[in-house]
Protein backbone atom coordinates (compact mmCIF):
# COMPACT_ATOMS: atom_id res chain seq x y z
CA UNK A 1 0.00 0.00 0.00
CA UNK A 2 2.78 2.43 0.90
CA UNK A 3 4.65 1.59 -2.31
CA UNK A 4 1.53 2.32 -4.37
CA UNK A 5 1.19 5.74 -2.67
CA UNK A 6 4.86 6.51 -3.34
CA UNK A 7 4.47 5.64 -7.02
CA UNK A 8 1.26 7.70 -7.28
CA UNK A 9 2.93 10.68 -5.58
CA UNK A 10 5.93 10.48 -7.90
CA UNK A 11 3.66 10.31 -10.94
CA UNK A 12 1.52 13.23 -9.72
CA UNK A 13 4.63 15.26 -8.86
CA UNK A 14 6.75 13.99 -11.77
CA UNK A 15 7.83 17.45 -12.98
CA UNK A 16 8.88 18.43 -9.47
CA UNK A 17 10.59 15.06 -9.00
CA UNK A 18 12.55 15.50 -12.25
CA UNK A 19 13.60 19.00 -11.18
CA UNK A 20 14.70 17.53 -7.84
CA UNK A 21 16.82 14.93 -9.68
CA UNK A 22 18.44 17.62 -11.86
CA UNK A 23 19.26 19.64 -8.75
CA UNK A 24 20.72 16.52 -7.12
CA UNK A 25 22.93 15.96 -10.16
CA UNK A 26 24.19 19.53 -9.92
CA UNK A 27 24.89 18.88 -6.25
CA UNK A 28 27.24 16.04 -7.18
CA UNK A 29 29.20 18.41 -9.43
CA UNK A 30 29.34 21.09 -6.71
CA UNK A 31 30.41 18.51 -4.13
CA UNK A 32 33.26 17.24 -6.28
CA UNK A 33 34.35 20.78 -7.16
CA UNK A 34 34.61 21.74 -3.49
CA UNK A 35 36.37 18.49 -2.58
CA UNK A 36 38.95 19.38 -5.23
CA UNK A 37 39.16 23.03 -4.09
CA UNK A 38 39.49 21.94 -0.48
CA UNK A 39 42.37 19.60 -1.29
CA UNK A 40 44.13 21.81 -3.83
CA UNK A 41 43.61 25.28 -2.32
CA UNK A 42 41.72 25.80 0.92
CA UNK A 43 43.32 23.08 3.06
CA UNK A 44 46.43 22.44 0.93
CA UNK A 45 48.97 23.31 3.68
CA UNK A 46 47.53 20.61 5.97
CA UNK A 47 48.53 16.94 6.13
CA UNK A 48 46.59 14.65 3.81
CA UNK A 49 44.94 12.84 6.72
CA UNK A 50 43.44 16.16 7.83
CA UNK A 51 42.79 18.02 4.60
CA UNK A 52 40.95 15.19 2.83
CA UNK A 53 38.23 14.75 5.50
CA UNK A 54 37.91 18.54 5.74
CA UNK A 55 37.55 18.75 1.96
CA UNK A 56 34.87 16.02 2.03
CA UNK A 57 33.00 17.92 4.73
CA UNK A 58 33.31 21.18 2.78
CA UNK A 59 31.93 19.48 -0.36
CA UNK A 60 28.97 18.07 1.56
CA UNK A 61 28.09 21.31 3.36
CA UNK A 62 28.34 23.48 0.24
CA UNK A 63 26.48 21.03 -2.02
CA UNK A 64 23.61 20.72 0.45
CA UNK A 65 23.40 24.53 0.56
CA UNK A 66 23.37 24.90 -3.24
CA UNK A 67 20.84 22.06 -3.55
CA UNK A 68 18.63 23.83 -1.02
CA UNK A 69 18.82 27.13 -2.92
CA UNK A 70 18.00 25.51 -6.28
CA UNK A 71 15.16 23.52 -4.72
CA UNK A 72 13.84 26.54 -2.82
CA UNK A 73 13.71 28.80 -5.86
CA UNK A 74 13.12 26.29 -8.68
CA UNK A 75 11.85 22.84 -7.64
CA UNK A 76 9.46 24.22 -5.02
CA UNK A 77 9.39 27.74 -6.48
CA UNK A 78 5.59 27.68 -6.46
CA UNK A 79 5.45 27.27 -2.67
CA UNK A 80 4.72 30.49 -0.79
CA UNK A 81 7.74 32.31 0.66
CA UNK A 82 7.21 34.18 3.95
CA UNK A 83 10.43 35.96 4.80
CA UNK A 84 13.82 35.22 6.29
CA UNK A 85 12.54 33.25 9.29
CA UNK A 86 10.79 30.72 7.10
CA UNK A 87 13.78 30.59 4.73
CA UNK A 88 16.18 29.66 7.55
CA UNK A 89 13.72 27.17 9.06
CA UNK A 90 13.44 25.45 5.67
CA UNK A 91 17.22 25.52 5.31
CA UNK A 92 17.55 23.82 8.72
CA UNK A 93 14.93 21.21 7.77
CA UNK A 94 16.69 20.60 4.46
CA UNK A 95 19.98 19.88 6.25
CA UNK A 96 18.18 17.51 8.64
CA UNK A 97 16.48 15.68 5.77
CA UNK A 98 19.72 15.50 3.77
CA UNK A 99 21.50 14.04 6.78
CA UNK A 100 18.83 11.37 7.29
CA UNK A 101 18.89 10.50 3.59
CA UNK A 102 22.70 10.30 3.63
CA UNK A 103 22.64 7.92 6.61
CA UNK A 104 20.06 5.73 4.85
CA UNK A 105 22.11 5.75 1.65
CA UNK A 106 25.20 4.71 3.61
CA UNK A 107 23.30 1.98 5.50
CA UNK A 108 21.65 0.48 2.40
CA UNK A 109 24.89 0.47 0.37
CA UNK A 110 26.86 -1.12 3.19
CA UNK A 111 24.15 -3.65 4.03
CA UNK A 112 24.00 -4.83 0.41
CA UNK A 113 27.79 -5.08 0.22
CA UNK A 114 27.88 -7.00 3.52
CA UNK A 115 25.19 -9.42 2.36
CA UNK A 116 26.94 -10.01 -0.95
CA UNK A 117 30.35 -10.48 0.62
CA UNK A 118 29.45 -12.73 3.52
CA UNK A 119 26.43 -14.63 2.20
CA UNK A 120 27.22 -15.09 -1.48
CA UNK A 121 30.99 -14.68 -1.80
CA UNK A 122 33.54 -16.04 0.60
CA UNK A 123 34.48 -13.57 3.31
CA UNK A 124 38.07 -13.78 2.01
CA UNK A 125 37.18 -12.57 -1.49
CA UNK A 126 37.34 -8.91 -2.47
CA UNK A 127 33.96 -7.56 -3.57
CA UNK A 128 34.30 -6.44 -7.22
CA UNK A 129 34.08 -2.68 -7.78
CA UNK A 130 31.12 -3.06 -10.13
CA UNK A 131 29.07 -4.45 -7.22
CA UNK A 132 30.25 -1.67 -4.92
CA UNK A 133 29.16 0.91 -7.48
CA UNK A 134 25.81 -0.83 -8.03
CA UNK A 135 25.15 -0.90 -4.29
CA UNK A 136 26.13 2.78 -4.05
CA UNK A 137 23.60 3.60 -6.80
CA UNK A 138 20.89 1.62 -5.02
CA UNK A 139 21.70 3.49 -1.81
CA UNK A 140 21.59 6.80 -3.68
CA UNK A 141 18.18 5.86 -5.08
CA UNK A 142 16.82 5.06 -1.63
CA UNK A 143 18.31 8.27 -0.22
CA UNK A 144 16.89 10.29 -3.11
CA UNK A 145 13.36 8.99 -2.52
CA UNK A 146 13.58 9.67 1.22
CA UNK A 147 15.03 13.11 0.50
CA UNK A 148 12.33 14.01 -2.02
CA UNK A 149 9.37 12.92 0.07
CA UNK A 150 10.60 14.35 3.37
CA UNK A 151 11.34 17.67 1.68
CA UNK A 152 8.04 17.64 -0.22
CA UNK A 153 5.90 16.85 2.81
CA UNK A 154 7.92 18.58 5.57
CA UNK A 155 10.52 21.15 4.42
CA UNK A 156 8.46 22.69 1.61
CA UNK A 157 5.02 21.77 2.97
CA UNK A 158 2.35 24.13 1.64
Number of alpha- plus pi-helical segments: 5
Which regions have little confidence, pLDDT < 50, spanning 5+ residues? Answer: none
Provide the succession of SSEs.
Answer: HHHHH
**Rg of Cα set:** 18 Å
Please write out the topology.
Blueprint lengths: L1 H11 L1 H29 L5 H28 L8 H37 L8 H27 L3
Question: Would you mind describing this structure in some detail?
Answer:
The mean pLDDT is 89. The protein folds into 2 domains: 1-78, no CATH class; 82-158. Helix 2 (14-42) packs antiparallel against helix 3. The protein has 5 helices and no strands. 21% of the residues are buried. The longest helix has 37 residues, at 84-120. The protein is 84% helix and 0% strand. With 158 residues, it is mainly alpha-helical.
List keywords for this structure.
single chain; 158 residues; mainly alpha; 2 domains
Brief write-up:
84% of the residues lie in helices and 0% in strands. The protein has 5 helices and no strands.
Amino acid sequence: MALKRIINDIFRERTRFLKFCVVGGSGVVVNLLFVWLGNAVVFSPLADGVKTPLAYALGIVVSILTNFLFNYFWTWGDVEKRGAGQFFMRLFKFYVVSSIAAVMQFAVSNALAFLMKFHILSDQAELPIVWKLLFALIGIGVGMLINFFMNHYWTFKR
